[in-house]
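Researcher: Go.
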Amino acid sequence: QLQVVESGGGSVLPGGSLRLSCEVSGSSLDYYAIGWFRQAPGKEREFVAAIRWSGGFSYYADSVKGRFTISRDVLKNTMYLQMNSLKPEDTAVYYCAAPITPWVVAAEYWGQGTQVTVSS
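Model: Structure:
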């Protein structure tokens, strides 16, 4: 059984940066992908980015490609999402989840979510 816990959300001005963290515990992720999703008020949850725990291959939604970078530290069992050039439309609750299939909004285990607000 996996546990995933996010941290690092907050409020930032447009153009600013934030880094989200997701600490994973409980089971090996060697054969899985783990990822980030987000849900804005009144909208459906959407895929943001994912990474293969073994090998580190990454996947991105078109809306964040070139601005967000997903990474993981296997020794710390932690995944990160570095978010740069943030826009108001990035405002949402961000969720860490595993295991996942990239681009598919489904997972066996979800974190509690962390709020990201981009506003002037």
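Model: The chain has a mean pLDDT of 95.
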